[in-house]
Design goal:
The structure is a single chain. By secondary structure, this protein is an alpha/beta fold. It folds into four domains: 6-187, P-loop containing nucleotide triphosphate hydrolases (Rossmann fold), CATH 3.40.50; 193-285, Helicase, Ruva Protein, domain 3; 297-386, Up-down Bundle (Zinc Finger, Delta Prime, domain 3); 394-481, DNA polymerase III clamp loader subunits, C-terminal domain (post-AAA+ oligomerization domain-like), CATH 1.10.3710.10. The chain contains 22 helices and eight strands. It has a six-stranded mixed β-sheet, sandwiched between helices. Strands 7-8 form a two-stranded parallel ribbon.
């Protein structure tokens, strides 16, 4: 299935239409019908937030934006790689604003080779007749087959078109090598909370946005930032929907009063912004308002309950608190670290497989991100909560650390000291050492602790899980070590 290319010229006073565009490039009615996320799309690199590593003066992206249609030196094709809602489409439209550009937008989901060839033919005509450079924005390029990507190569090679391709998948695996070698790969970073908040503030005040007609409550702002998940588009979509709910509620409140009061309040409302509450944002996003401050009491209380539920072997409670942290937008790396600590601290040698499973879950979260990262986290938490518990290992270490800090370290026994350097043997180092593998069961009867700690015991296995069998083995080892 193919689509008709979205082809238009972008003059100096024109704004390129985005998705939902219904009129001409200068149609005010068309812009009014556009979603808030489209109306607030940055027009210059200076308006782009969260990608400062790509937009600094002199950067390849900056050079591409500033290059005119006839400036061939700065017209390198680029591949924009990043998660949804971080500005890939926005950057493509900013690039199209350079003078002497014709901007064409295709989606690899619906476009085919026929559409690509049509764009290339139009680009050749534009360059020969008008001296204009064609910028082809190809969204979801990873959905193009190898043959479809091959069709782009000649035009990109000759800079007949400047390709701006966007993808959410690693281009090293989803884009053919010849196309990669002819393009700059730019990695967009997920937006942090400050960047998303900045976008919300801008949308409230900007004439292109809500034009100061609304006031966003602080808790509502925090709520949108949290549920947006670093997605700028989602944050503005929720804000727009919440503004509609707030406006409808304000109108309903006025409608219940008499005409005289209405006239007085109507005069005030023209100057008083409508307040967007946290509840309106929750209704707009179909999300439940969850009280959770990642830097406050809720953060520490929930994670404390999470760890104690794992330690207490209550798998349902552990999964509940895991869910609360995930829904609240807690950093999944933080959750994974706590899971790893719990495996070593609370399960230990009662089930030595707990720690590898926890570490594997942590690695998986870092590699695949969220929301899929919740799956290995759930598996690890379930395993840890159901596993037998023992803190004997780390308690033994803490006891040994306490002795060392209290001056009970003592001297390393002479027969255990390094005897490899010149003169060591003359000092008696290594003399009398018994090589364990030369003895039955691989255990030699000799002292390993310093003389001041002879006979000291730190590790006392529990009777839980695999540690039950370790207690018997430890007793047998002690008899061989100290007959």
């Amino acid at each position: 299935m193919s689509q008709e290319p979205n082809l238009f010229s972008d003059g100096p006073d024109q704004e390129p239409p985005g998705p939902g565009f219904t009129g001409s490039a200068n149609s005010s009615s068309g812009r009014a019908l556009d979603p808030l996320a489209v109306r607030m799309r940055p027009r210059t690199l200076s308006e782009v937030v969260g990608q400062e590593h790509l937009t600094f003066p002199g950067s390849p992206l900056n050079q591409l934006v500033e290059a005119s249609g006839g400036d061939r030196a700065g017209a390198s094709s680029v591949i924009l790689w990043g998660p949804p809602g971080v500005g890939k489409t926005t950057l493509a439209h900013v690039i199209s604003h350079a003078p002497g550009r014709t901007f064409v937008e295709l989606s690899a989901i619906t476009a085919g080779v026929k559409d690509v060839r049509q764009v290339i033919e139009n680009a050749r005509r534009e360059r020969e007749m008008y001296g204009r450079t064609t910028v082809l924005f190809l969204d979801e390029i990873h959905r193009f087959s190898k043959a479809q990507q091959d069709a782009l190569l000649p035009a990109v090679e000759n800079r007949l078109v400047v390709l701006v391709a966007a993808t959410t998948e690693n281009p090293s695996f989803s884009v053919i090598s010849p196309l990669l070698s002819r393009s700059l790969m730019l990695t967009l970073r997920p937006l942090d909370d400050a960047a998303v908040g900045n976008l919300l503030d801008r949308a409230i005040e900007s004439e292109r946005g809500l034009a100061g007609q609304f006031e966003l409550a602080a808790e509502a702002r925090d709520f949108i930032v949290r549920i947006a998940g670093a997605d700028a588009r989602r944050s503005l979509t929720v804000l727009e929907a919440a503004a509609g709910i707030a406006a409808a509620q304000a109108a309903a409140g006025r409608a219940g009063e008499d005409d005289e009061v209405n006239e007085a309040e109507d005069g005030e409302e023209a100057e008083t912004p409508i307040r967007i509450t946290e509840q309106a944002c929750a209704e707009a996003s179909s999300e439940t308002v969850l009280r959770y401050d990642r830097n406050g009491d809720q953060h520490y209380d929930v994670v404390s309950a999470f760890i104690k539920s794992i330690r207490g072997s209550d798998v349902d409670a552990a999964l509940h608190y895991l869910a609360r942290m995930i829904v609240a937008g807690e950093d999944p790396r933080f959750i994974a670290r706590r899971v790893v600590i719990s495996a070593a601290e609370d399960i230990g040698m009662a089930d030595p497989q707990a720690l590898p499973i926890a570490v594997a879950a942590s690695t998986a979260v870092q590699n695949i991100g969220m929301p899929e990262g919740r799956i290995p986290l759930a598996e690890a938490v379930t395993y840890l909560a159901l596993a037998p518990k023992s803190n004997a290992s780390y308690r033994a270490l803490d006891a040994a650390i306490a002795d060392v800090k209290n001056g009970l370290a003592g001297q390393v026994p002479t027969h255990l000291r390094d005897a490899h350097y010149p003169g060591a043997k003359e000092l008696g180092h290594g003399h009398g050492y018994k090589y364990s593998h030369d003895y039955p069961h691989g255990v030699a009867d000799q002292e390993y602790l310093p003389e001041t700690l002879r006979g000291k015991r730190y590790y006392t296995p529990s009777t839980n899980g695999m540690e039950r069998s370790m207690a018997e083995r430890l007793e047998n080892l002690n008899r061989l070590l100290r007959p």
